[in-house]
Design brief:
CATH superfamily of the largest domain: CoaB-like
Largest sheet: 8 strands, mixed
Structural class: alpha/beta
Bound molecules: cytidine-5'-triphosphate
Shape: elongated
CATH topology of the largest domain: Rossmann fold
Strand content: 15-25%
CATH architecture of the largest domain: 3-Layer(aba) Sandwich
Number of strands: 21
Radius of gyration: 24 Å
Number of domains: 2
Distance between the termini: 27 Å
Strand order of the largest sheet: 12-11-8-13-16-17-19-20
């Protein structure tokens, strides 16, 4: 490690706090400068002296503790910190982080930090599975927190189940990965399409599909974290976009086409993750279509293929990536799409496989380029996004 980076270890009040001492020691051994903030409740489980002996710094406890260097300027700690790890993170402290409550040294400092944040939840299974906790964790993920664990096994309450704090060695690895994340897209403009499109029949009805937009949004987040200027052309979804991304909201395939094509000269990389409708109603009824006793046939016409248009008009140094969602003949169909759309890569997945496709947080993808295919195991959509970008970076060189 060239320069010594500061990791802030937040310790909240759970029995797993005893593991934080080992985590702290491992972080120091790995070469980090470690600052520790404990909540008052954590003092019931472990003493500040333990962390002081390990880090060589005074352990911070409360905003009103006026006796140490950050007494009035705790925000200066926020400036110095490269990553935050809160371990154990109780249901209570997760709830506070999720809702911006800053009522002690730890929550105040975390709110003031804009560095990567990792939480290692540890609690009783029922608390972890309570919808309130689940929602709070989802909120934190939306704000970019990395949630490590929890694992399953024996819990301090005597029960066995989900809620064990992730192992310290695993957490040290996650911190390393987070801090050493590549910035290999710096200076590049990346345009990503995401979500479904809506093709209106009349003022109240439309044709759409089940795309959640999760894959496209994961790509936007990953590209942003790797230094890209990201434009996200998004169909209607229920996801909060990562801040820092230029979001262009569209509804129909026509609007998505116009949004992408009008920006095509400014981009270095295109990733078409949207599930664009291939057909749209041939005519739009200005008035609501009234039912009759007869069956109704809809006349549909083809939409313009955005990926094909961009693939065939790309310049030599632009990289174009498309997706292929298939239910059969995955590789054959994806290879056909690679050729017919003149793409540099097709990300193929079989929607029938468990853990792949629409709405899930995971995906099982195969990366197909002119020089071969790479089958990947089941991964989170965030991990898939980075694998796709790893390949794009190589193609861009
Ligand atoms: N795509 C696009 N514009 C369209 C349709 C699709 O940009 N009008 C892009 C998608 O974003 C995706 C890829 O093309 O990257 C999907 O290819 P496509 O051949 O359209 O796949 P399907 O819609 O699944 O079509 P098919 O029914 O032929 O498999």
């Amino acid at each position: 490690m060239s320069e010594k980076r500061t990791v802030l270890l937040g310790v909240s009040g759970g029995i797993a706090a005893y593991k934080s001492a080992y985590l702290c020691s491992r972080l120091v051994q790995t070469g980090y400068d470690v600052e520790v903030i404990m909540t008052k409740n954590a003092l019931n489980f472990i003493t500040p002296n333990t962390f002081e002996a390990l880090t060589g710094h005074r352990t911070m406890i409360d905003t009103f503790d006026r006796d140490h260097e950050f007494s009035t300027e705790h925000v200066s700690l926020a400036d110095k910190v490269s990553a935050i790890i809160v371990a154990p993170a109780t249901a209570n402290v997760l709830a506070k982080f999720a809702h911006g409550i800053a009522d002690d040294m730890l929550t105040t400092t975390v709110l003031a930090c804009d560095c990567p944040k990792i939480a290692a939840p540890a609690m009783n299974t029922r608390m972890y599975e309570n919808p309130v906790t689940i929602d709070n964790i989802d909120i934190l993920k939306k704000y970019g927190w990395i949630i490590a664990g929890p694992g399953s096994g024996h819990l301090a309450c005597g029960a066995s189940g989900k809620g064990r704090m992730a192992e310290p060695d695993e957490l040290v690895e996650i911190i390393g990965d987070t801090l050493n994340k590549k910035k290999d897209l710096t200076g590049l403009n990346v345009l990503i399409t995401a979500g479904p499109t809506r093709e209106a029949l009349d003022p109240v009805r439309y044709i759409t599909n089940h795309s959640s937009g999760k894959m496209g949004y994961a790509l936007a987040k990953a590209a942003l974290s790797r230094g890209a200027e990201v434009t996200l052309v998004s169909g209607p979804v229920n996801i909060v976009p990562p801040s820092g991304v230029d979001v262009v909201n569209v509804n129909s395939a026509k609007e998505m086409y116009d949004a992408v094509v009008s920006r095509k000269y400014d981009q270095d990389i295109f990733i078409m993750a949207a599930a664009v409708a291939d057909y749209t109603p041939a005519s739009f009824s200005e008035q609501k279509i009234k039912k009759s006793d007869d069956d109704l046939s809809l006349q549909l016409e083809r939409t313009k293929d955005i990926l094909k248009e961009i693939g065939h008009s790309k310049t030599g140094d632009q990289v174009v990536v498309g997706f292929a969602m298939e239910t059969e003949n995955l590789i054959e169909n994806a290879l056909n799409k690679l050729k017919s759309k003149n793409a540099d890569m097709i990300v193929a997945n079989n929607t029938k496989e468990k853990g792949a496709g629409f709405g899930t947080d995971t995906n099982i993808i195969t990366l197909i380029t002119g020089s071969g295919k790479e089958e990947l195991p089941i991964l989170t959509k965030d991990e898939c996004a980075h694998k796709i970008l790893d390949k794009v970076v190589v193609m861009k060189k």
